[in-house]
Amino acid sequence: MKKRTIEIMDTTLRDGEQTSGVSFSVAEKLALSKLLLDELNVDRIEIASARVSEGELKAVQEISQWAQNSGHDQRIEILTFVDGGTSIEWMVQAGAKVQNLLTKGSLNHLKHQLKKTPDQHFKAIEENVLAAQKEGLTSNVYLEDWSNGMRNSREYVNDYLSFVSTLPIKRVLLPDTLGIMTHHETFSFISEVVKNHPQIHFDFHGHNDYDLSVANAMEAVRAGCHGLHLTVNGMGERAGNTPMASTVATLKDFLPEVEINIKESSLYKVSKLVATFTGFRIPANKPIVGENVFTQTAGIHADGDKKKNLYFNDLLPERFGRTREYALGKTSGKANIQKNLQKLGITLNDDEIKKVTQRIIELGDKKEIVTTEDLPYIISDVLNSNTIQKVRVNSYVLTHAKGLQPNTVVSLDIEGEVLEENASGDGQFDAFMKAIKKIYRKKKMVLPQLTDYAVRIPPGSNSDALCETLITWKNEDKEFITRGLDSDQTVSAIKATEKMLNIISN
């Protein structure tokens, strides 16, 4: 049986940009447009709303020029409005070829927001679509608040669809604008409109207010819709839109009767780039693209993976350009330790593994996250070996007085050579880092760039609780994280820095 192809329209650059605090630059929009179409292979992208700003106009002009030269002009879409032709003029100026016209999909919105009758609204839509056709533009139409329209004014929706089927419109876009539908409603509503209007191409546009958007997308496809609207990392207003990565995986694994053109192995790459551009961090447990979703923590799971992959599912990390990891913590067992030792090329006997496992459990009880990078230092500490640690912070003095800049004196042991320096800074840790940099300049060595600094304590802790400092470093094109644990925040940061110094020395 021939599979039914589902179009994927990405709206990260339009609806996703409505995430609070997010705004893409012209260069970022152009770069992401190229990546979404050429690398991820989405079918279409919605990149902007008409009439928003001069910056938006410039972005659309540059993307449209690239799209025309690349043969992608029919894959670039713009949200437009029923505004007497102003949006169409903007489209022509921008060089865009496809409009997604925002219209009212519920009688409630029509009456109370536009204060118009259905006939008045339909006439205005017709004028817009015909005017767009004269300019050589392709028209799709959004039925804003369609889900409430199906719940409360179904006759209006049916009249609208019967009317719009007579116009030169390529697609009808059905948004669950407020993210209110259950998966049962989604299947029922989509089935109904597809059955009643088989000549129309329907897209479903979901929102995630009840965390049901992926289930709704799957049910919309099952019900016969022809396309889905998604955003990278589920970005969007309020709780966001239907997320790209988990929806793609769901369709491929649970609906074998359909196919999509998305390149799965590029999902993680695109996700990370969008997160970088927006500062909108990906939750560690977010399906497919989260930092921890391919990490086994419990020792019994790692052991099961050794024995016929007992804890694998169809979401193999390699599908998405990732690898399986084995976390180290208080639930770690021997199997977890061995998996990480294999990665490092380190061999230990059973007694040594037992000691290392016990130390990791102790650290886990203190809430410290242990990484593969931490493992050599734990081994060194547990086995009383100094061969792995090449750099040691021998001593330091931290001073902080009112009215004076903080000052630090530091003594480092670098492979047996003891070096001392002092420095002032904006804070104690800043002073410490400046002293370290002075020492490394003497050695004609360059330190990595500090790109992120985070401190956390266990929930409900007192003022004397252990705090964990996580520092992200960038060394050329590679990023890595080091962690320190101490009751003093500055000291924990120094411990994290000491780990970094040893990583770059190996």
Write the layout of secondary structure elements.
Elements: E1 4-5, E2 7-10, H1 26-39, E3 44-49, H2 54-70, E4 76-81, H3 86-94, E5 98-104, H4 107-114, H5 118-134, E6 138-144, H6 146-152, H7 154-164, E7 171-175, H8 183-196, E8 202-205, H9 213-222, E9 227-230, H10 244-254, E10 258-259, H11 267-278, E11 295-296, H12 299-306, E12 325-326, H13 334-344, H14 350-365, H15 375-382, E13 391-399, E14 407-414, E15 417-424, H16 428-442, E16 449-456, E17 467-475, E18 478-486, H17 489-505
Parallel strand pairs: 1-10, 2-3, 2-9, 3-4, 4-5, 5-6, 6-7, 7-8, 8-9, 11-12
Antiparallel strand pairs: 13-14, 14-15, 16-17, 17-18
How helix-rich are the residues, as a percent range?
40-55%
Query: Mind summarizing the main beta sheet?
Result: 8 strands, parallel, barrel
Q: Structural class from helices and strands?
A: alpha/beta
SS summary, helix count: 17
Number of domains: 3
- DSSP, total strands: 18
Distance between the termini: 57 Å
- Might you state the CATH topology name of the largest domain? TIM Barrel
CATH class membership of the largest domain: Alpha Beta
Q: Report the CATH superfamily of the largest domain.
A: Aldolase class I
CATH architecture of the largest domain: Alpha-Beta Barrel
β-strand amount:
15-25%
Supply Rg.
28 Å
Instruction: Give the low-pLDDT segments.
Output: 298-307
Side by side, the strands of the main sheet go: 2-3-4-5-6-7-8-9
* Mean pLDDT over the full residue set: 87
